[in-house]
Write a structure and sequence with these properties.
Elements (H helix, E strand, L loop, with lengths): L9 E10 L2 H7 L2 H15 L16 E5 L2 E7 L8 H17 L5 E12 L7 E2 L1 H14 L4 E3 L1 H9 L10 H8 L3 E2 L6 E2 L1 H6 L5 H21 L4 H20 L1 H4 L23
Parallel strand pairs: 4-6
Antiparallel strand pairs: 1-3, 1-4, 2-3, 4-5, 7-8
Length: 274
């Protein structure tokens, strides 16, 4: 097989994602149930217009799947600067929210740097940024979250190549920065806030919050005898509660936020900080 001359490194945003607890799922679930999880992961994360536009014009993500691992590569050295970071964070946040509402929890890493993709005939995805995204997921994510390299934030704040050229930097940052949450271990994607700010109807957003609560309550009950798993779902339940209490949309509605709060299970405690 001959490698085409057109494959080269390009400045890219790279996302590496996988399903939390997939190995346990393989051991306990039927092949049909595993396939349903994988197909839902594919549906939520695959770009609708995969391979359609010329990605030298605008930032169009390329998508690859191996088992439960997803790699998305979005080149941003394009003629038109459309806001690559906004679109990648929005895509990931809405995908993560959709999956979580169905009980499929993912974690991952978002890195920046050189990456290359192959062709339809030779589907390759590699480069330093791909390795960095994998390292972020494997070593730093820990909980069901997508961690963001500090290099992404620094490059976004200090320049314009990741911002939309039709907006001012200030306007772009007002859309991007609320999707990112700070923590003692670095920034990560606030997918519940991303879903809230996406413009969906209140009833749809409320339905998502209720489903999210129900799925987490199920996990806290199901894994109560497994401290390792409980640590992750207690963290996620704490995040859920923080979002509900901070939600501007819920605060301005008739709906009592107490109905969405997850009570900590007897004998366990939520983490002191996210």
């Amino acid at each position: 097989m001959v490698v085409p001359d057109s494959i080269s490194y390009r400045p890219s945003l790279v996302s590496f994602l996988d399903i939390l607890g997939f190995r346990e799922l393989l051991a306990s679930a039927s092949a049909d149930d595993v396939a349903k999880h994988l197909l839902e992961l594919k549906r939520a994360t695959q770009p609708i217009d995969q391979g359609a536009p010329d990605d030298t014009l605008a930032s169009e993500p390329k998508w690859f799947q191996v088992s439960d691992a997803i790699v998305r590569i979005r080149h941003f050295d394009t003629q038109y600067k459309d806001g690559a970071l906004y679109y990648e964070l929005s895509d990931l946040g809405l995908a993560q929210a959709s999956l979580a509402g169905q009980g499929v929890f993912i974690r991952g890493g978002l890195a920046i740097g050189d990456a290359a993709v192959g062709t339809d005939e030779i589907p390759l995805a590699f480069g330093p940024a791909v390795a960095d995204a994998y390292e972020l997921e494997a070593k730093l994510a820990v909980y069901p979250r997508i961690v963001i390299s500090q290099k992404v934030i620094d490059q976004y704040r200090s320049g314009t190549e990741l911002k939309a050229q039709q907006h001012s930097s200030e306007y772009d940052e007002k859309a991007v920065l609320p999707m990112i949450r700070s923590s003692s271990t670095g920034p990560w994607l606030d997918y519940m806030s991303t879903a809230e700010a996406s413009g969906i109807e209140f009833s749809t957003y409320l339905g998502f919050c209720n489903r999210h609560k129900e799925q987490l309550a199920r996990c806290l009950s199901e894994f109560a005898s497994d401290p390792r798993k409980m640590e992750k779902y207690l963290w996620l339940a704490s995040y859920h509660n923080c979002h509900v209490r901070e939600s501007i949309v819920l605060r301005d509605s008739w709906y009592p936020e107490e109905d969405l709060i997850i009570e900590k299970p007897f004998g366990w405690d939520f983490p002191s900080k996210l």
